[in-house]
Amino acid sequence: MTAHETADLLTLEFPELDAELHAPSTLHSVYRQLDCFAAFTRRALSADRLALLRRCFAVADSLLRHADQYLTRAIENVYLHGLHLDGSTAHLHLAQQLMPQGLYRAYCHPHTNMLP
Questions:
Q1: pTM
Q2: Concatenated DSSP letters of 41-93
C-alpha cells in the first residue's frame, strides 16, 4: 500500500483528516500520516469518544492486516507508539477491550527500534 493509498483510505474512513493527510508535507510520508492518525486517535481517547476510538482501532487493525512489511513497521513504530498509552491498568484494559485482536497483539509486542 502506497502513502497515497494509505492517506486515501484514512480519509475515506475519517473525512475530517483530509486536509491534514493530504497536506504536501504529509501526503508522501506514511510515517507522518500515521502520526496524524495517532493524534486523532488520542483526541478521541481524551474526549472519551469510545465509539470513535473503537473505529480508529478497527481501521488501524485493517491497515495492519493488509500491510506490507514497511507499513506494518510504520503502524507498530509510529501509530501504536504515538498513541501514548501509558501502560496504566486503565489504558491496558481499554486497549484490551477496544482493540481488535491483531492490533492488540502488535501493541503488546515489544519494539526495540522506534526509529523509522
A1: 0.88
A2: HHHHHHTT-HHHHHHHHHHHHHHHHT--HHHHHHIIIIIIHHT-----HHHHH
